[in-house]
Amino acid sequence: MRCLLFVDSAGALVLGDVDSGVNVPIGEQPAGVDARVTTAVWSAQGQWTAWAVDAPAADGVHELRVHDEATDITRVLAESLGAFYLCPSPCGRYLSHLSPGPLGLELGVSDVRTGELTIIERGQPLFWSWSPDSTHLAVHVEHRVLVVSADGSDRLVLSEDAGRFITPWWMPGDAIAFVVDDRIVSGSANRGPATRQTTVLADSGNGRFAIDPDARRLALFDRIDGRASLVVHDLLTDARSVVTTEQVAAFFWSPDGRALAVLVLASSTEFQWLVHDGTELVRLQAFRPSRAWLSSVIPFFEQYTLSHPVWSSDGRSLVAPSLDSDGLASAMVQSVEPPFTVERLAGADLVWWAAG
Description:
Layout: E1 3-8, E2 13-17, E3 23-25, E4 36-42, E5 48-54, E6 62-68, E7 73-79, E8 85-88, E9 94-101, E10 104-111, E11 117-122, E12 126-130, E13 136-141, E14 144-149, E15 155-159, E16 169-171, E17 175-180, E18 183-188, E19 198-201, E20 209-211, E21 217-224, E22 227-234, E23 240-244, E24 248-253, E25 260-265, E26 271-276, E27 281-283, E28 288-289, H1 291-296, H2 301-304, E29 317-323, E30 329-335, E31 342-346, E32 348-353
């Protein structure tokens, strides 16, 4: 079954079956006339769905809710918390979340089973990624990069002069990739001499980069022959190939790392997926994305690629919220293989693939 998790135009959370076209609401409708689901996420292993409910009124609802897939029970995980981004740990035990606080943005971690909440860091900007074993987070806050345990009890500073970039990336051997000055470097999450920085790439371009699941190839912006380009750099051979010189808004590696989905500007109002498999570049149908997706996901695509998949788990389809000529949103599922079919589920302002 191919399932999508999406927030509809009414602010409700829905699970959509692409094959049957059936949409099923998750949990209860938001309490209060103006309350809406602002964001949602499916745990990496499909144990639960979490979402944030927010109402603009000062005395309205601001909380995190979780729906357990095994028991079909919905409960409040955290109250008085207006989260606008959610990221589950790989094991599914924790939910990390970003919220406004009295001292700036707050990165919190909630234990999904017990509800215990720990504030990990405060500051702005604030981005992070989970270690593969879910025990630590690599955090980029202001100009610092640090490693913090999931319970907040232990922290290790890797850099206090981080350059312009978004999200730190975990690599093999507990190494973490981030940007210092104009270099992409790695530092070890383990204490000791190995915490010294090692240069991964001498030129980081504009600092926006993404590493494939095998940590073999790195996609980044660079200038080739004087032209702004999206390139893929092989970290083992140092071979570099140009993917496109078009205006790129975001890029996402497929789950198996065999292909890179690139979102380019097709016109003043439309975007288009380009899919690059190392040898061939496939161009899919152009679409006009929803405003919510453009404003929340695309500017921070490196962060969202760690939590909200645009690729299906089999690497055969991409999804994005698309507007029709009347401005009505739908989930647009495009196959990356011939015959390049297009399927739609109505009502999706924000949409991602569910786990599985």
